[in-house]
Amino acid sequence: MVCKRSKARRQHMKLTINTSFQENTSSPYLLILVDSEHLQKVASTYKINDLNTIIEAAQFKSSLTESLTLIGKVADCNHTVLMGIDKANDLSPAKLAKIAQSIIKASQKKFKQISIDISALTSEQHYLFAMALTQANYIFDEYKSKKNHCILETIHLISTDSALNPQQLNLIHAVQTGQSWARDLGNRPGNICFPEYLAEQAQALAVEYPELLKVTVINEQQMADLGMHAFLAVSKGSDRPGRVITLEYKVQTEQAPIVLVGKGVTFDTGGISLKPGLGMDEMKYDMCGAASVLGTMRALCEAKLPIHVVGAIAAAENMPSGHATRPGDIVTTMSGQTVEILNTDAEGRLVLCDTLTYIQRYKPALVIDIATLTGACVVALGSVLTGMFTPDDELATEIQAAGQSSFDRVWRMPVIDDYQEQLDSPFADIANIGGPKAGAVTAACFLQRFTREYRWAHLDIAGTAWNSGAAKGATGRPVPLLMQFLANRAQANG
Predict the structure, then answer these.
(1) Is 147 a catalytic residue?
(2) In degrees rounded to 5, what are phi and psi of residue 284?
(3) pTM of the model
């Protein structure tokens, strides 16, 4: 993941797995992960005679991310560092991520390649640690005049006993590529990243992979002809026209496709139900569902998984103007159901409901929508877990398992008929909000009314799609989750 940006596309960091340092002695920097109980093994492997003396003098305890520099102590590498992991058996994925971040921070601007001895980790931890390294090596400096010139190109992992194999490394590379692109798209501002821009990005991806991808873009006139008036109720307030974008990854077209639907509201002012000004700049992230779908489609092309997938993006900008939808307006959706729009800031479900109807033409095996949908989900789950809503127990189990394997976790929330009455309207078939109670649940219940024809799950990523504060930026989630889910599916299909 080299951070210098070329005019073409970002180069990504390469990972290798070797059994010893001697296989890649060209690395000028060697990091050895050390567990507090296995320091002697390090001394023996790397022939460091006076290691105990050095450790005693430095009072090195092998605590988490604690480092000890050994200059000239390892014959094959002058610059060697011990990095503490405390106790390997107690390492959570979150702690693995912290170790990865410490390593990348110390090395990405200094070395083109480094080696990391991961023997102290359990074999099962290797995959997540490798993934964490690629995620930590992301930098976004497109719009800075002074670039963060990180030069790290390759990491050689070292272990005599690793579960990592070429297939896994290939999947990690693919996820890295897709997740980084999703982060780039999310971080770009609304004056650059708008609905037509997302359509252009999808078309450019299809040019890169003409054998694998087919892209279709429909405009507002075509939407009107199809009866997508809920979608148009959102986009008509903006001078930027909306777009529905589909990308068909057609490796196994004899299979019914898995369809991923991403909310792509490229900027969300709230419309006439205007949001407060403080923090509104972060509403550029309201298209992170769409970004994750695009990222996943790129990752699929990189990984070449034997599976049939369609990505669909509901791209619109929600603005207040003389053409904007008013609270209380009633529209007819593509499904024929009517919606009373009580709050124009509940716009994501309006663009999604028509898109969820539109994708029925693909006769999907199942549909997963991904959306920064509700502040209520952030209140419920914070920024740690993505809210998952589905009436399908089997599908819920699959998604949860993929989330655990990729450390991109979900928490199942209810989507049951008991909440549907909150959406009743005296004037239309359905209201677009259900009152202050259970806001994330009623949003999912709204979408459910448009998904009765197929298996469906909804991922509310409002808390997990980006970080605020000093580390502000898109996370690229849930690309790791979606790719793991698709990889598991492809494997199950044989």
Answers:
(1) no
(2) -65, -20
(3) 0.96
**Given 14, 112, 275, 412, the catalytic residue:** 275
Reference 285, options 408, 375, 187; nearest CA is 187
Helix, strand, coil percent content, the chain, rounded in steps of 5:
40, 20, 40
Domain spans of the chain, in order of start? 14-164, 173-492
Label residue 26 by pLDDT band (50, 70, 90). Answer: confident
Q: In 313-362, which residue ranges form alpha helices assigned H by DSSP?
A: 348-358
Neighbours of 493 (CB within 10 A): 12
Indicate the CATH number for domain 173-492: 3.40.630.10
Tens digits of per-residue pLDDT, 385-418? 999 999 999 999 999 999 999 999 999 999 999 9
Q: Decide: 359 and 447 in contact? Cβ < 8 Å.
A: no
Give the closest residue to 369 by CA, choosing from 443, 423, 269.
Answer: 443
Span 434-483, pLDDT tens digits: 999 999 999 999 999 999 999 999 999 999 999 999 999 999 999 999 99
Q: Is 144 a catalytic residue?
A: no
Catalytic residue of the set 188, 236, 298, 349: 349
Average pLDDT on 338-351 reads 98
Q: Are 373 and 263 in contact (CB under 8 A)?
A: yes
Are β-strands 243-250 and 213-218 bridged in parallel, bridged antiparallel, or unpaired?
Answer: antiparallel
- CA-closest candidate to residue 480, choices 138, 26, 237, 224: 138
Share of the chain above pLDDT 70, in %: 97
CATH superfamily of 14-164: Leucine Aminopeptidase, subunit E, domain 1 (3.40.220.10)
SS3 state of residue 404 = helix
| Segment 348-355 mean pLDDT | 98
